[in-house]
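Incident log, structure service

09:12 report received: a user says their structure output differs between two submissions of the same chain.
09:20 pulled the input from the user's history:
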Amino acid sequence: MSNPLSIYNSLSRQKEVFEPLHPPFAGMYVCGPTVYSNAHLGHARPAITFDLLFRYLTHLGYQVRYVRNITDVGHLENDADEGEDKIVKTARLQNLEPMEVVQKYMNTFHRNMDQLNTLKPSIEPRASGHIIEQQELVRQLLRKGFAYEINGSVYFDVEKYNRKYKYGKLSGRILEDLMANTRELEGQDEKRNPFDFALWKKAAPGHLMKWPSDWSDGYPGWHLECSAMSIKYLGEVFDIHGGGMDLQFPHHECEIAQSTAALGKESVRYWVHNNMITINGQKMARSLGNFITLDQIFRGDHPLLEQAFSPMTVRFFILQAHYRSTLDFSNEALIAAGKGYQRLMKAVETLGNLKPSAASTVDIEDLSEKCALAMNDDLNTPILISHLFDGVKIINSVNDGTEKIDDKGIEALRKLFDDYVFKILGLRDETQDSKTDDLAEELMKIIIDLRGEARTRKDFTTSDRIRDELKKAGVTIKDTKDGVKWERG
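09:34 re-ran on a clean worker, output below:
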């Protein structure tokens, strides 16, 4: 294909030219959230990073199947296959069914993703919906001798795998070093080696999420789900697997091992990892207690926040840094991002009102080539944004009369901003959103007043029709003691 994308391949530690085996199709699997809590700022980075990649591959002409999983079972409190399932623990604390917890936080996650203007994945499978596929993968590994059963649980034999393949090639770990530095932990004595990982865990009495299997009533290991679901939806070999850098080890390393052992070949051509968002130099994470939820950022009601920040400010803040670099949170950085975003949106507004001249003194073709080169260079959004601000300077200079641009140049500049600002970077003009919301408020006031007049005349047929038609359009109205209220959805 034209304009091949160079991406940083975590496996080879160098840039590679991304050319799928069967263009124009590209398969991409991304590890999604474990839905046991509200999404925080750290969750926004992988969501925006792989939304950017999804958008750009589509822009280049690829038909992309983007699979992002939801982990709703099997993710224990630590990576040593011990502790309580995170979702079960939350369900117990909140006195809910586990699937209530999953649905509650999935709804919040999806709402936050819509606010950040991320495109929906092609497929969003849940681990609990693919128990059969995971059990079959366990059987394959047992048949090939890379797994063993003990006391109703099944573990992957890392040492045996390492003798035929190489364990640790993604993260750079060396098994011998792991063996020398791994101490025995209480409760792990049933494993042959402490670094073996669970494929299937026998459920303890009272465990809320369990399924019958050949080995026990239990549940799948966390790593197993991604191998099973990526193979199901993208085939035995696919193009891109992504996720946060914190998933390289052990999660993605274990995925490579179990998929390679089962299939006799590696499944993933390119591994792409985004770096972390930090706060005071430390990874932002719920487990560390230093997280800020996206809702708190949008409302501005967290002690570390000086003000509320809009979703597009957050998106622009994340895009200003390269996806492989760390990004440190601060109010100052978000305020600066908000100003940069507003400057970009103001330029777009000005661009819509530019008057053409007979001749042009600016070179839009050169600017367009620079933008393409930046994106083709491992999604280099900081460089792309700097080029877009060069475009802002051109717009302002033409508007001030110090530069000239012809019809063809205006058309090219509008296409460039439409492609890179809106379609690829995925930014949205929030001032237009605000105008739309204001218009919706005014229209709904008129409709509610008309319905009220019909009710006063006892014309309940018209009143009920207005209510029912609004409901079909996705608007619910409620008669309360404080008047008529309305909401979308």
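09:41 both user submissions now match this output. Likely a transient worker issue. Closing.
09:42 reviewer note: The CA atoms of residues 313 and 338 lie 5 Å apart. The chain has a mean pLDDT of 90.
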